[in-house]
């Protein structure tokens, strides 16, 4: 039995989790420079303390409806994939949860392909399900193309 | 672990750390590998030098010491197989050293092969962390045989002349395991190893444009009894019997040693420490950030009058600049590092082909960024091989033609204005113009009529054209021909240019011009579709102002936009619409940037030219790599991120409308500069330091005006000049104008606008050869040249013209500032 830390976050009302060890920082994505001709998931590039970070919109990546106009300012979690810095733009960050491996389940088989690929598994929390995302496939160019 | 490798449809729980695909290589071994790889490169070229000049005691000592060190370290690390090979090699070298054995090409070949074997084992070691399985008894017994047998033979046999035929043909008895020299690092995905490249190269027919109709030499060599890769230990007597036939060689490459001579024994005395590349890259990033922060600070302080910060900030600014230079220097490596393998390559080729070839290298010390160095290593090797193999005639043919028997391949490198120029020349047969002409027509690259109208140089350039190379049908090399077009693509990818000059019967010279570094480039910041973009200045030839009031107007042919420029039609690409940022309309167009990519020239239409800035190029994240139109991104002084446009990809995206070819391209200048003509130069002083000079032809007019007349606004200066406002720039930004008295000005005219450069004193007008020798240490200077006995800095007029235009654009975009050209 082992315990694992997850940063939990919300996108379009759904609760997601990312392995806390993978999350570098949480920030407001401001000063975005759009990248013309790029895929719709790409929100733009920005300067985060001297690093160039590519912001990817989680809603679009997951095929959810766009953020409503009156929604509060979005947040981004900083992740590193293949040595590149990314910011996954999400609605809000909840808390860091310690979860037991025993409560972990493989994702159900009836997920849409776009989701099945980027989900590592599911935790059954008391109130709701926590979907664990895999930052690697989430932000990998090859998977993005296939999606 | 690659994210893409997970093919298992049932995702499993993933642990936080990744597992390396190979075994983890122990630190000690890793260090040993780096060190040994370096030593081996030295041994390679030292051995060739040694073969040419067996009496050179120092060279032999050096080789002996290196091999000895390798052996020692192997023993220490418990690498038995390596140790055994190194030991046998050392024994043989020891014999040479004691004078008990004479140096023969056979013996040197054998030692070289044992070096190759060591490299092979090292490669295995690097990949798996263990010595690969294998048996070296064959090689070792040969080495021992050579060491012992020779001792006996030495007193009895008379030396004989080395025959003109390939050495291999003389010693078929010595069966030597074939070991390919290996790359020191593992290949990256999509990369092709040098071996494969060369294999493909050999497999391909000699490109027939290179040669007269006899490509036999290559075919013959291939037919020769090649040593088999796996063999029984050969009879010891065989090499012994064969060896005496050869002799303390009158080497086939005498001049080679001379060319290498000045590098002698530098290793022991160099004071250096080994720093990992990661640390250097880290430093570079930090300094880049510091430069950006400094730029931000400078921008803030410019807007404040009082500032007590001004002086210390100025100092900080200078220091940051110096720090940046120093760190850049740590990334610099002499180009000789990319040439180390060439003596060996040429020596082997020389033996294989039975040609006598001298390799001459000049300017090995010329430094360039290690990143650039890595990128040109393979193209250079390929071209040298090409020259030696196809460029040079066989020895008999040379003699018949009354040429010196030894063919010559010459490599030269030098700095010129922020670039490094590399020349690869041979004194062989030159390109076969008639055949290339036929081929162009045959391949449909141009019509017969077009070809007939071209001069030789234009015809020759077609060997760089995609689809020209004869090797096009070869192999598994990702379906591409290994030809000059690949070389050209590689060079252009790093912002370089390649050109050639060939004279029938006298030889061919390739000239490559590449930027010294890719990390920092000067860029123009332009606006299009409400967004800012950076364009590398190297590809911008000129800026043209267009619009309703301007002299130049954009016109339409069908739907394609063109610009009439000096009686030629320039095809245009509109940046905003191409990036889908705005609809295509002529109204938005204010500037056309004339961009040259290879032989293509086109105009990039932008709304605004905002600034010039030195930018630090950062690669885009891999998720954005499919947007090929951007080559990277950078952070500007104001902290915003801008994308860097790739002029090459832009021209491709813009499609087939770019049919316009440049007739006499600017590249001709490269070829001409070697001969040199006297040029009228204006000498002047400005901003202290060395006197400065500029070609007189660039200057429209010299003016002396009263200093009070200069108007200053917002930190910039301008002058009412012929009814218009003309911006005045300074040679050095930090340096102010004269407050009173007379201010001398050099007036330059760009495409439809004028600008002036303030100087301290105009010294003289002289005529002299312009031979730029030293590279510049800052933008705006092309380099240093000696003019009438004085070292002068040569001004880069284009740099100031672009800045002048940016000033125009920035200050009053609405007002027409055009001055009539004189």
Number of separate structural domains of chain A:
1
Morphology of chain A: globular
Estimate what percentage of residues of chain B fall within beta strands: 15-25%
**Oligomeric state, counting identical vs distinct chains:** heterodimer
- What is the helix tally of chain B? 24
Task: Please tally the β strands of chain B and state the result.
Answer: 30
What does this structure look like?
The complex is a heterodimer of chains A (147) and B (822). Chain A has 147 residues and is mainly β. Chain A has one domain: Beta Barrel (OB fold (Dihydrolipoamide Acetyltransferase, E2P)). Helix content of chain A is 13%, strand content 48%. The radius of gyration of chain A is 15 Å and the shape is globular. Chain B is α+β, with helices and mostly antiparallel strands. Chain B has 24 helices and 30 strands. Chain B has a six-stranded mixed sheet with strand order 10-14-15-13-12-11. Chain B has a six-stranded mixed sheet with strand order 27-19-20-30-29-28, with no helix packed on it. In chain B, a hairpin with a 6-residue loop joins strand 28 and strand 29. The longest helix of chain B has 26 residues, at 27-52. Chain B is globular, with a radius of gyration of 30 Å. The model of chain B is unreliable at 1-25, 150-191, 210-269, 471-481, 656-675 and 812-822 (pLDDT under 50).
Task: Draw up the topology in text.
The complex is a heterodimer of chains A (147) and B (822).
Chain A: E1 3-11, E2 14-19, E3 23-27, E4 42-48, E5 51-57, H1 58-61, E6 75-81, E7 84-90, E8 92-100, E9 104-105, H2 113-116, E10 119-124, E11 129-133, H3 135-139, H4 141-146
Chain B: H1 27-52, H2 57-77, H3 80-98, H4 105-128, H5 137-153, H6 167-170, H7 194-203, H8 216-223, H9 237-242, H10 254-260, H11 277-302, H12 310-331, E1 332-334, H13 336-339, H14 342-353, E2 357-362, E3 367-369, H15 370-391, H16 395-400, E4 407-416, E5 419-426, H17 433-442, H18 448-452, H19 456-460, H20 484-493, E6 497-503, E7 507-515, E8 520-528, E9 531-536, E10 540-545, E11 554-557, E12 560-565, E13 568-574, H21 575-578, E14 591-597, E15 600-606, E16 608-616, E17 630-635, E18 641-645, H22 647-653, H23 668-675, E19 678-685, E20 692-695, E21 699-706, E22 711-713, E23 716-721, E24 724-730, E25 742-750, E26 753-758, E27 761-769, E28 772-774, E29 781-787, E30 790-795, H24 797-811
Parallel strand pairs in B: 2-4, 9-18, 13-15, 20-30, 24-26
Antiparallel strand pairs in B: 1-3, 4-5, 5-7, 6-7, 8-9, 8-16, 10-14, 11-12, 12-13, 14-15, 17-18, 19-20, 19-27, 21-25, 22-23, 23-24, 25-26, 28-29, 29-30
């Amino acid at each position: 039995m082992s315990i694992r830390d997850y940063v939990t976050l919300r996108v379009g009302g759904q609760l997601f989790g990312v392995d806390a060890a993978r999350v570098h920082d949480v920030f407001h994505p401001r000063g975005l420079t759009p990248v013309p001709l790029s895929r719709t998931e790409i929100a733009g590039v920005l300067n985060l303390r001297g690093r160039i970070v590519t912001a990817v919109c989680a809603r679009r990546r997951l095929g959810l409806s766009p953020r409503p106009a009156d929604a509060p300012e979005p947040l981004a979690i900083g992740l590193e994939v293949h040595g590149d810095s990314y910011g996954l733009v999400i609605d809000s960050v909840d808390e860091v949860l310690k979860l037991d491996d025993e409560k972990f389940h493989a994702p159900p088989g009836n997920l849409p392909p776009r989701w099945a690929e980027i989900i590592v598994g599911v935790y059954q929390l008391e109130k709701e399900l926590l979907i664990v995302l895999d930052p690697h496939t989430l932000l990998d160019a090859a998977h993005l193309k296939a999606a | 672990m690659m994210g893409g490798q997970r093919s298992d449809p049932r995702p499993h729980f993933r642990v936080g750390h990744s597992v390396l695909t190979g075994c983890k290589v122990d630190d000690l071994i890793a260090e040993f590998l780096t060190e040994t790889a370096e030593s081996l490169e030295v041994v390679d070229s030292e051995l060739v030098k040694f073969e040419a000049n067996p009496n050179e005691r120092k060279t032999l000592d050096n080789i002996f010491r290196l091999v000895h060190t390798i052996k020692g370290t192997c023993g220490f690390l418990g690498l038995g197989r390596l140790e055994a090979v190194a030991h046998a090699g050392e024994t043989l070298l020891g014999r040479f050293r004691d004078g008990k054995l004479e140096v023969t090409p056979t013996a040197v070949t054998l030692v070289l092969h044992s070096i190759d074997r060591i490299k092979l084992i090292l490669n295995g070691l690097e990949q798996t962390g263990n010595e690969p399985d294998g048996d070296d008894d064959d090689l070792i017994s040969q080495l021992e045989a050579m060491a012992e047998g020779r001792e006996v033979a030495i007193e009895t046999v008379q030396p004989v002349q080395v025959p003109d035929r390939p050495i291999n043909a003389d010693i078929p008895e010595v069966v030597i395991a074939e070991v390919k020299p290996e790359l020191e690092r593992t290949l990256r995905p999509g990369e092709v190893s040098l071996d494969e490249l060369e294999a493909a190269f050999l497999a391909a027919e000699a490109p027939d444009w290179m040669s007269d109709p006899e490509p036999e030499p290559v075919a013959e060599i291939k037919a020769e009894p090649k040593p088999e890769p796996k063999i029984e230990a050969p009879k010891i007597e065989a090499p012994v019997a064969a060896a005496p036939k050869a002799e303390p060689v009158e080497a086939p490459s005498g001049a080679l040693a001379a060319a290498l001579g000045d590098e002698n024994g530098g290793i022991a005395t160099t004071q250096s420490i080994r720093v990992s590349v990661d640390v250097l890259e880290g430093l570079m990033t930090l300094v880049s950030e510091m430069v950006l922060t400094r730029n931000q600070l400078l921008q803030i302080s410019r807007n404040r009058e009082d500032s007590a910060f001004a002086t210390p900030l100025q100092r900080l600014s200078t220091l940051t600049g110096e720090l940046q230079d120093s760190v850049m220097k740590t990334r610099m490596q002499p180009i000789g590092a990319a040439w180390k393998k060439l003596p060996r390559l040429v020596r082997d080729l020389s033996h294989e082909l039975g040609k006598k070839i001298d390799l001459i290298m000049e300017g090995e010390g010329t430094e360039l960024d290690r990143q650039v160095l890595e990128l040109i290593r393979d193209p250079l090797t390929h071209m040298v091989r090409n020259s030696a193999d196809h460029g040079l005639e066989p020895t008999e043919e040379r003699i018949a033609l009354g040429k010196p028997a030894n063919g010559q391949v010459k490599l030269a490198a030098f700095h010129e204005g922020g670039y490094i120029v590399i020349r690869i020349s041979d004194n062989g047969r030159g390109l076969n113009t008639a055949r290339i002409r036929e081929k162009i027509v045959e391949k449909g690259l141009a019509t017969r009529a077009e070809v007939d109208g071209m001069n030789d140089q234009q015809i020759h350039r077609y060997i760089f054209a995609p689809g020209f190379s004869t090797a096009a049908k070869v192999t598994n090399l990702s379906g591409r021909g290994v030809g000059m077009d690949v070389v050209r693509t590689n060079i252009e990818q790093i912002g370089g240019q390649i050109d050639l000059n060939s004279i029938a019967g006298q030889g061919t010279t390739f000239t490559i011009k590449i930027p010294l570094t890719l990390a920092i480039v000067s860029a123009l910041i332009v606006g299009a579709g409400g967004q800012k973009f950076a364009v590398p200045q190297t590809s911008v030839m000129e800026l043209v102002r267009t619009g309703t009031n301007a002299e130049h107007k954009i016109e339409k042919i069908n739907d394609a936009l063109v610009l009439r420029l000096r009686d030629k039609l320039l095809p245009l690409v509109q940046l905003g619409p191409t990036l889908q940022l705005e609809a295509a309309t002529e109204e938005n167009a204010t500037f056309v940037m004339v961009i040259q990519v290879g032989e293509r020239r086109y105009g990039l239409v932008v709304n605004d030219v905002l600034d010039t800035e030195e930018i630090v190029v950062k690669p885009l994240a891999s998720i954005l790599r499919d947007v090929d139109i951007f080559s990277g991104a950078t952070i500007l002084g104001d902290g915003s991120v801008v994308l860097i446009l790739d002029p090459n990809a832009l021209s491709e995206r813009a499609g087939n409308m770019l049919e316009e070819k440049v007739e006499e391209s600017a590249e001709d200048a490269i070829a001409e500069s070697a001969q040199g003509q006297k040029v009228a130069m204006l000498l002047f002083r400005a901003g202290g330091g060395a006197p400065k000079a500029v070609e007189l032809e660039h200057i429209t007019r010299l003016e002396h005006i009263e200093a009070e007349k200069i108007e200053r606004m917002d930190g910039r200066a301008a002058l009412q000049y012929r009814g218009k406002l003309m911006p005045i720039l300074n040679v050095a930004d930090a340096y102010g104008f004269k407050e009173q008295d007379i201010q001398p000005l050099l007036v330059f005219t760009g495409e439809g606008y004028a600008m002036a450069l303030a100087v301290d004193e105009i010294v003289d007008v002289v005529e002299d050869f312009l031979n730029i020798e030293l590279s510049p240490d800052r933008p705006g200077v092309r380099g240093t040249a000696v003019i009438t006995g004085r070292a002068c800095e040569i001004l880069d007029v284009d740099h100031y013209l672009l800045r002048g235009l940016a000033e125009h654009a920035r200050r009053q975009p609405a007002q027409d500032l055009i001055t009539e050209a004189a």
